[in-house]
Amino acid sequence: MMNLSLALIAADPAVEGVVVTCPYAPDPANPLDRRFRERYQARFGTPPDSFAAHAYDTIHLLARAAAASDLTPAGIRQTLAANPTHIGATGHLHLDA
């Protein structure tokens, strides 16, 4: 897992006042999250962090939208708008914009 404190210290004074949230908590009751964590750990030898979990869900969400659209930006956006709910490793996501 990334040591965010060290990353911010090494960054520069420009990050002064930056607030970082980590809205991902592993959920053993979520089979999608459990599968994601097991596969990530096996591949990379370390538990996934919030960035990995959100990237995983984002790729799955976009892949699903791309497969159901005409692959144009407008088509992908329309597909996402028509199917705003996604269930993934980070839980239930709902797009509203």
Order of helices and strands: HHHHEE
Instruction: Report the span from N to C terminus.
Output: 31 Å
Percentage of residues assigned to helices:
40-55%
Strand content range: 5-15%
Count of separate DSSP helical elements: 4
**Number of E strands:** 2
Q: Roughly how many Å is the radius of gyration?
A: 16 Å
Low-confidence blocks of residues: none
General shape: globular
Largest pleated sheet: 2 strands, antiparallel
Structural class: mainly alpha
Strand order, largest beta sheet: 1-2
Average pLDDT: 85
Protein described:
Helix content is 52%, strand content 8%. It has four helices and two strands; from the N terminus they run ααααββ. Strands 1-2 form a two-stranded antiparallel ribbon. A hairpin with a 2-residue loop joins strand 1 and strand 2 (91-94). The longest helix has 18 residues, at 50-67. The two termini are 31 Å apart. The relative contact order is 0.14.
Q: Top keywords for this entry?
A:
mainly alpha, 4 helices, 2 strands, globular
Quick rundown:
By secondary structure, the protein is mainly α.
Write the layout of secondary structure elements.
Layout: H1 4-11, H2 31-44, H3 50-67, H4 73-82, E1 85-88, E2 91-94
Helix pairs in contact: 3-4
